[in-house]
What we know:
Layout: H1 3-12, H2 16-31, H3 46-55
Amino acid sequence: MKSELLEQASDIVKDPQVLINVVSQRVRQLNTGRSPLVDVLPSMGAADVALTEIIEGKIKVNPQNLD
């Protein structure tokens, strides 16, 4: 996971626990075959993709839906 992506996503999702939960949930989705919502580079892991999706506004974080 790239630290600069984590920092940028932290500016959007202020609660670290919520950010961890959102990224974890999205990584599971990506690993089970869901398509990325952003352009993926070969050097990007699933967590990088999830963070980039948050940064680019492709994923809207609603803490009430994190069950």
